[in-house]
Amino acid sequence: MGFLGPSGTFTEEAASKLRGVLVAFDSIVGVLEAVDKGEVDLGVVPIENSIEGPVGMTLDLMVHDYDLKIRNEITIPISHKLLVNPDVKVEDVDIVYSHIQALSQCRKFLDKLGVVTHATPSTSAAAELVSGKKNAAAIGTARAAQIYGLKIAEDDVQDYKNNVTRFVVIDHGDHSMTGRDKTSVVFSLMKDKPGGLCEILGEFSRKDINLTKVESRPSKEKLGRYIFFIDFEGHRADPEIGNILNIIKSKVEYIKILGSYPTEGEDLHSFR
Ligand SMILES: O=C(O)C(=O)C[C@]1(C(=O)O)C=C[C@@H](O)C=C1
């Protein structure tokens, strides 16, 4: 199972909830590429965070670059630690390294600290970089502190206490129906008109189907054109959901089903 590494990331913590041998990759694209090529069976990547919102890289790659599916979701609490070398004091730190998502989740804390920040490919890559450096700190996990010989100078440095990140397990196909499932789709509207989005979402409300996420991202074609990501309760193999998806297909310009998978906590270990 591929994950965003090196060892000591939050993604590794999420992936370790599943059975399987873990293989670290330096980037989200590296994980998806390895799944696509069959170098690993599955990949685990972050998709959204409760403070900072979407992990744009994952969403963009799933829409534009790969035809892979979500087969599970895993949500874990995220407690960020300020990590320094054992002989370094927080007052001496003038540069903090971390993943852009982590830096964004700790913005107020970093402002108060009055430091320069530098983005790295992951939180553990930051910890590795800081190891042996004076005047530098990383934001990352307790496990990264252990692995890279750092100490936790400050705990829980995220700006809001209830911080969670949702990860997805990526495969060539999605999960079979369990009875407690979610489906993720992305679509774009035929044209920009009053009530266009409402018409699509109305298909779900008419059948009393709960949406668990609605998000828009730039289409990357031109300013003001968006693609919409929605997650809803139900499996695409359920005939009622299939009907709704068929109706929607006839009304949108583009639609891609990103996968149906068990709602968190259900069937995390049943991969086939
Ligand atoms: O760098 C890491 O430790 C990661 O696993 C990535 C990641 C992310 O991209 O959202 C995962 C969880 C946290 O939200 C911060 C960083």
TrEMBL record:
Question: Superkingdom of the source?
Answer: Archaea
Where does this protein come from, organism-wise?
Methanobacterium paludis (strain DSM 25820 / JCM 18151 / SWAN1)
- The Enzyme Commission number assigned here is 4.2.1.51
Q: Which reaction does it catalyse?
A: prephenate + H(+) = 3-phenylpyruvate + CO2 + H2O
**Pfam families with a match to the protein in the record:** ACT, PDT
Q: Does the keyword Glycosyltransferase apply?
A: no
- Protein's pathway: Amino-acid biosynthesis; L-phenylalanine biosynthesis; phenylpyruvate from prephenate: step 1/1
Q: Does the keyword Iron apply?
A: no
Which stretches make up the Prephenate dehydratase domain? 1-172
Please give the Gene Ontology molecular function terms for this protein. prephenate dehydratase activity
Q: What is this protein called?
A: prephenate dehydratase
Annotated GO biological process = L-phenylalanine biosynthetic process
Location of the ACT domain: 185-262
Record's Gene Ontology CC terms?
A: cytoplasm
The record's InterPro entries line, in alphabetical order, gives: ACT-like_dom_sf, ACT_dom, Preph_deHydtase, Preph_deHydtase_CS
Keyword field: Amino-acid biosynthesis, Aromatic amino acid biosynthesis, Lyase, Phenylalanine biosynthesis
